[in-house]
Amino acid sequence: MSFAIIQTGGKQYKVSASKIIEVEKLQAEEGKTIQFKNVLLLNDDKNTEIGNPNISGAIVEAKLLENVKDRTILVFHKRRRKNSRKKNGHRQRREDQINEIEYTILSKQKMAQQRREDQIIRIKEAIVIADSLGIKKREDATGLIKSSQMNLDIITATTPLYYAGTMSLEAEIKTLENRVSDDPFISGLRNLQEKLSRLRSIKSDDPFISGLRDLQEQLALLRSFKFSTKNMHSVHIDQAAYPPKNRIKPNRRLIVSLGTVVGLFLGIFLVFFVSFIQNQKEAHSA
Fold first, then answer.
1. b/e code 204-240 from CB counts within 10 Å (16+ = b)
2. Dihedral angle at the C-alpha atoms of 51, 56, 61, 67, nearest 10 degrees?
3. Is the pLDDT of residue 92 over 80?
4. Cα(27)–Cα(165) distance, rounded to whole angstroms?
5. Which of 94-103, 112-121, 210-219, 224-233: highest mean pLDDT?
6. Where are the domains of the chain?
7. Is beta strand 48-50 parallel, antiparallel or unpaired with respect to 11-15?
8. What is the DSSP string of 165-218?
9. Which residues does 5 contact at the CB level (< 8 Å), separation at least 6?
10. What distance in Å separates the CA atoms of residue 56 and residue 276, rounded to the nearest whole number?
11. Is the peptide bond before 53 cis (omega within 30 degrees of 0)?
C-alpha cells in the first residue's frame, strides 16, 4: 500500500489514500480541499523516494472534514507562602510522537539499505580492479609499493579495497546480497523501537501529566462539599481578605511585665491566705 510522509504544523504524519488523520489547526473551512507541499517521503510499493528535505513537485491533497479541539492538558504551579500561581495548558497528543518515531525508523531503514547497495557497487568495482591486477588473496599494500616519499604518503593513507583480493570480496558481496534485514546494523534503531513500543502500550497519559493528580485531588475535595440552600444566608463583604505582608510578632516586653505583675500579686495573695489559715488554726486550738 503506497503512502507518504508529510509535514504540517511542525509535525510529521504518515498518510495514505482514505486515511483520516488529526493535524494541527489549519486556516481553512470545513469541506474545503487543502494541499500539503511539504512532502518528505513517497512510497509506491516498489520504490521509495526521500526528499532533501522535501520532494520537489510532490503534493498531497486532502479534504478538511472538521475543525475540532483536543482535550486540554492543564499544568498548574504553586509556590507556598509566595502568592504565586501559574496555570498553563497544551494539546500535545501521543499519536504525534508515535508518527515521528515511525518516520525516523523508516528513514533509518531506507538509508541503511541504500548504504548496503552502495557498498555492493564499490565491492564490484574493486573485484574488477583486483581481477585485472591478478590479486586473488589479500595482499599487503606495503609490500607492493616501493619506498619513496610519494609512496610513503600512499602507505599512510587508507588501503584500497581491491587489495582484499577477489576471493574475500566475492564472499563479502555474497553476504551483503543475501542479508535479510539491515536492522542489526542500524545505530540507535533498537532504542527507537523500544520507545515506540512503550508509547503504544500506554493506555492513558494521566501518569505523565505534571500536576494532574493535585488538580484531581482538589476537584474531588470540591465535589465532596455539600451545601444546603435552606441554611444559607447572604452576606455583604466590604473587602477581600488578604494575607499580611509582614509577620505579626508578639510584644515580649509586655508579656514579661504582665507575667511579673501577675506573679507578684499571686505571691502576696498566697502569703495572706497561708497566714489566714494559720490564725484560724491557732484560734480554734485555744
1. eeeeeeeebeeeeeeeeeeeeeeeeeeeeeeeeeeee
2. 70
3. no
4. 62
5. 112-121
6. 1-91, 93-205
7. unpaired
8. -HHHHHHHHHHHHT---SGGGSTTHHHHHHHHHHHHH-S-SGGGSTTHHHHHHH
9. 12, 13, 14, 15, 39, 40, 41, 103, 106
10. 115
11. yes
Q: Are 110 and 104 in contact (CB under 8 A)?
A: no
User: CA 213, CA 243: separation in Å to the nearest integer?
Assistant: 27
pTM: 0.41
Residues 6+ away with beta carbon under 8 Å from 29: 64
**What's the CATH code, domain 93-205?**
3.30.1890.10
CB 49 within 8 A of CB 42: yes
Q: What SS3 class is residue 76?
A: strand
Contact between 21 and 15 (Cβ < 8 Å): yes
State which H helix or E strand residue 270 sits in. helix 252-285
pLDDT digits 0-9 by tens, 238-266: 877 777 777 777 788 888 999 999 999 99
Question: Hey, what's the cell of 286?
Answer: 485555744
Residue with cell 523508516: 106
